[in-house]
Structure formats: C-alpha cells, structure tokens
Amino acid sequence: MPVLLQVSAEELEEALSQLFSNSEILEARCLAAKQAFQTLSSGIVANVWNQLNFNVLRQALC
Predict the structure, then answer these.
(1) What is the number of alpha carbons within 13 Å of residue 23 lying toward its C-beta?
(2) What is the pLDDT along the chain (62 residues), one digit of tens a residue?
(3) Are 29 and 19 in contact (CB under 8 A)?
(4) How many other CB atoms are found less than 10 A from the CB of residue 19?
(5) CB 28 within 8 A of CB 2
(6) Which ranges of 1-62 would DSSP assign to H, the alpha helix?
(7) Which one, of 4, 55, 62, 53, lies nearest residue 29 by Cα?
(8) Integer Cα distance of 48 and 36 in angstroms
(9) What is the C-alpha to C-alpha distance for residues 26 and 23, in angstroms, rounded to an integer?
(10) I want to staple 7 with a disulfide (CB 3.0 to 4.6 A). Which of 11, 17, 20, 56 is the partner?
(11) With 0-12 CB in 10 A as exposed, 13-18 as middle and 19+ as buried, what is 50?
(12) Rg of the chain over all Cα atoms, to the nearest angstrom
C-alpha cells in the first residue's frame, strides 16, 4: 500500500537517498503522491462546485 512520506529537513537527505536507491520505494511513493493529488483535486473541485451551486445557481433560479 503506497504511503506518503513526510520528513524534516534533517531527514530529507536520507529519505532522498532511499528513494533513488530503491525503485520499488520510489514507485510506491510516486503512486501515493498521485493518489493524494487526485483526492485533493477532486475535493477542491467539489467544494468549488458546491459554492457556485449555493451562491450563484440557486439564486439565479429563485
């Protein structure tokens, strides 16, 4: 299961070294990043749509 990795500045060098030395870890982290991006993006789009619907479309129809 892909997992995002959050590291401090001190841990960054070691984390990057692990990513670039192990292709399986790199692939898993890339997949996790893509999934996180898609989840956040869809949430943002849904929120914008709900705001438009509530503030613009409902008032135009009433």
Answers:
(1) 0
(2) 557 778 899 999 998 998 899 999 889 888 988 998 998 899 999 999 999 888 888 877 76
(3) yes
(4) 16
(5) yes
(6) 9-21, 23-52, 58-61
(7) 4
(8) 18
(9) 5
(10) 11
(11) exposed
(12) 19
Task: Taking the CA atoms of 26, 32, 34 and 40 in sequence, report the sign of the dihedral they define.
Answer: negative
Q: Are 15 and 7 in contact (CB under 8 A)?
A: yes
Q: How many CB atoms lie under 10 A from the CB of residue 18?
A: 13
Residue 16 DSSP label: H
37 is written with which tokens? 């991006």
The length of the chain is 62
